[in-house]
């Protein structure tokens, strides 16, 4: 079971957006998936209600996280996607503690690059694998936009793993959520849909790498 936590102290960076679109992608690909809405704002819960389907499980709240994850594992969940609030408080730390991988969405801007560092530090303190995903980026024009290049440079200088792709700013990503869908369902084959698919493949590869690393670790006697 792959537990992905979407975390960033910066509000509006795209945590709920990425969790919902990836959830929809997993539903479409028949991957048993549980969404956990650990943010009292309830964005993921609202999207799930608008969706009105039972293809994705939903657990709301931060209580009993360990028990909820154990139950999901027993039920055969392949993916668990946990959305968190924009702060660095105890419930976010607890979610990160349970993560196999933390996705830190980051818009490419000075304030965003600065704000994300508290979340990166939490992941480092808890020794959790993490990756920054550049979200709501200006469209590529052959190569990365200058803003994206700057953001990547800042992450590289801080030795922060950053997904090589990007999620481009696209109204389709907002519009599809308003219809309870993911962009893969709402606008299949669109560039936004391709980007979510490519993020999903990158996550899958990361999990394979993480699992290979942990299975090679010497076992304690
Ligand atoms: N790639 C994108 N293209 C267009 N709009 C986007 C994109 N990513 C996010 N948005 C929009 O930006 C807003 C904030 O996104 P979202 O709610 O996912 O951020 P968040 O990190 O979950 O915020 P919060 O910290 O408040 O929970 C939403 O209106 C969402 O539709
Ligand atoms: Mg949110």
TrEMBL record:
Q: Where is the CobQ/CobB/MinD/ParA nucleotide binding domain?
A: 4-135
- Matches recorded under CDD domains: ParAB_family
Gene3D superfamilies tied to this protein: P-loop containing nucleotide triphosphate hydrolases (3.40.50.300)
- Name of the protein in question: Cellulose biosynthesis protein BcsQ
Species name = Microvirga lupini
């Amino acid at each position: 079971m792959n537990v992905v936590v979407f975390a960033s102290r910066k509000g509006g960076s795209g945590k709920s957006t990425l969790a919902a679109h990836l959830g929809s992608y997993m539903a479409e690909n028949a991957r048993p998936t549980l969404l956990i809405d650990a943010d009292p704002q309830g964005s993921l819960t609202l999207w799930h209600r608008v969706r009105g389907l039972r293809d994705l499980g939903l657990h709301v709240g931060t209580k009993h996280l360990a028990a909820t994850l154990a139950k999901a594992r027993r039920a055969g969940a392949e993916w668990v996607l946990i959305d968190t609030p924009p702060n660095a408080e105890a419930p976010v730390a607890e979610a990160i503690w349970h993560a196999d991988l933390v996705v830190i969405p980051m818009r490419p801007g000075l304030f965003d690059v600065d704000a994300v560092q508290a979340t990166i530090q939490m992941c480092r303190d808890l020794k959790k694998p993490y990756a920054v995903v550049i979200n709501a980026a200006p469209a590529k024009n052959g190569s990365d936009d200058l803003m994206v290049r700057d953001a990547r440079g800042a992450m590289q200088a801080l030795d922060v793993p950053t997904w090589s792709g990007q999620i481009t700013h696209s109204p389709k990503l907002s519009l599809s959520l308003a219809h309870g869908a993911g962009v893969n369902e709402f606008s299949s084959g669109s560039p936004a849909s391709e980007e979510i698919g490519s993020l999903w493949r990158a996550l899958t590869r990361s999990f394979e790498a993480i699992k290979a690393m942990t299975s090679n670790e010497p076992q304690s006697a």
